[in-house]
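User: I'll paste a sequence; please echo it back and then give the predicted structure.

Assistant: Echoing your sequence first, then the prediction.
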Amino acid sequence: MFRSLRKVKKYRRQGRNLIASNKIKPDQWNISDAEVKEALKVKGYDVKQIKKICCLKHQVCISYWDKKGNVCSSFFSYRIFARWQTDVEKLIYCCQTLKEWKKLNYVIQYEFAYYHYLSEIEDALSSALENRLYVLRATEELAVFSDI
């Protein structure tokens, strides 16, 4: 007599973040204990010592001892690491044309909308995108004027 409720999946664009589109491959990073401690410190965790780091495709599992001596374990996004910011900035500065920049800007704006970024990282990436846009427009104008 009872109908089973069907599950409705919310629509989410597939392959539109930096990891799924294979622009950044953080699961291949060799993340050091110092990097993990720094990232967790920025997030507000009191870390005494790192116990285990397990890199997965879209996130990292970190087990650590806190200052009270408790063992804690949780999953964290790669977006909390400083290396993430440097890799995204490299992608931005590698754009050679406005078309490439527009595609990357689209993916990064999707990232900002769907994933939590620290405000400092988001501001730095936004300014890097803006600076690269100015450079690409200037070089495009120079190319047009040199053809005349």
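The first helix runs from residue 33 to 43. The helical segments are 33-43, 82-93, 98-114, 119-147.
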